[in-house]
Specification:
With about 400 residues, the chain is an all-alpha fold. It is about 55% helix and about 0% strand. It is globular and about 55 Å long. The N and C termini lie far apart (about 45 Å).
């Protein structure tokens, strides 16, 4: 089954752009006779409605989409990654991945698994062994390296704070795995070294790859875990997490270098977007002297890891990982779509109430459909308010 042979199915984003005659970040305009005008002259409700139908399956049920993805993965053919707007693997995964297929898809999208089926087993074994060699090369000799002393201390302090409410991640064996990954990554990336928040970015990968060994429900259980000792399966989870985490961070290196210019530019873009998308909310934030950095820095620095329960978060990350190196572009739009949900309440809050609420968003109230609509709204905003509307942002 070769997806490239089915040009009529180009994924949710591709179908959206085809329906409305759009190109990503295009400045072209069209005219709609329905609903209020948007910056591109497109009926925003119509766009959102189309995406919502697509998100929940449209003419095709989610189960059929899942079956189709599994059939493609098991076809034995070379996987075509494509773009997130295409009919390749990125396009299929952009709208969400079944938990049973997510580990394999994330490894393919992150480049850990090669697209050629006959090379996957050997290449995965090679990469896992390469990581295990790093343990003796870097981690076991960490105390001999003076320039790493500061990073080692920060990592040691941050690891126990990682998912403190999930007993699985508080196991000694789990925390050792997380520590090794961060120490090795720091050794191999001396330009930035470890930056606080990186520990949170490990969680989605570790959780997803651990679900190949443990049930997702047990991983999130509040019950005390029996002692988990190091084993082959756990070492493989650790190695896979390291490689995918490393590839993911390659796209956001400017989040971690001096002064974090990548985050600073996204904060400016977020503020501008709120002023365009939701003027009443923007006015409230201005009147209350609430700076964007005071509530959104953590959102961007930790890529929403602390804002959502893990099952909802990994659904959002399906989309981010499917975007490949372009995923940082959608982050400000996701933040706008998120804050929009509670805008009617936010406009009536004072400074203290705003800070308290925005630092503890009640995202546990959002179900799978809500998460799908959040992502749909973010992509809609990305189409409507592209870089031509934000040209004054550095």
């Amino acid at each position: 089954m070769k997806l490239g042979a089915e040009p009529e199915d180009v994924g949710v984003k591709g179908r959206l752009m085809g329906v409305f005659g759009l190109k990503k970040k295009s400045n072209a305009s069209s005219t709609s006779k329905e609903g209020p005008s948007t910056p591109l002259g497109i009926d925003g409700n119509k766009v959102g409605g189309f995406l919502r139908r697509a998100e929940t399956g449209g003419a095709t049920s989610p189960d059929i989409d899942c079956d189709r993805l599994e059939e493609y993965l098991r076809s034995g053919e070379t996987i075509e990654l494509g773009e997130s707007t295409s009919c390749g693997l990125r396009g299929m995964c952009w709208t969400g991945i079944s938990p049973s297929l997510r580990p394999e898809c994330w490894k393919l999208l992150s480049g850990l698994l090669p697209t050629s089926a006959d090379r996957r087993t050997a290449e995965l074994s090679r990469k896992r062994q390469e990581y295990h060699d790093y343990i003796s090369q870097y981690y076991d000799k960490r105390s001999d390296t003076k320039w790493m002393a500061s990073s080692l201390k920060i990592i040691a302090n941050d690891i126990p704070r990682t998912a403190p409410d999930i007993p699985f991640f508080q196991q000694d064996a789990m925390q050792t795995c997380l520590e090794r990954i961060l120490v090795i990554w720091s050794f191999r990336h001396p330009a930035s070294g470890y930056v606080q928040g990186m520990n949170d970015l490990l969680l989605p990968f570790f959780y997803v790859f651990a679900s190949e060994v443990y049930s997702p429900e047990s991983l999130l259980s509040s019950d005390d875990w029996p002692g988990v000792s190091e084993c082959v399966e756990l070492r493989n989870i650790e190695a896979d997490t390291y490689w995918c985490f490393s590839r993911f961070l390659d796209s956001i290196q400017d989040h971690f270098t001096d002064h974090q210019p990548g985050i600073q530019s996204k904060l400016l873009k977020l503020e501008k977007l709120i002023s365009l998308v939701d003027p009443p909310l923007y006015q409230t934030l201005q009147q209350q002297d609430l700076l964007t950095i005071q509530y959104a820095f953590r959102w961007l620095n930790c890529l929403l890891v602390r804002e959502f329960p893990l099952p909802s978060l990994v659904r959002i990350w399906d989309t981010l990982i499917s975007e490949g190196d372009n995923f940082p572009e959608i982050l400000p739009y996701l933040c706008v779509a998120l804050i929009e949900i509670w805008s009617p309440s936010l406009v009536n809050m004072d400074f203290a109430e705003l800070v308290s609420f925005l630092q503890r968003l009640p995202t546990q109230q959002l179900d799978n459909r809500d998460i799908g609509e959040l992502i749909s709204r973010a992509y809609q905003l990305q189409l409507l308010y592209n870089d031509s509307h934000l040209s004054d942002i550095g």
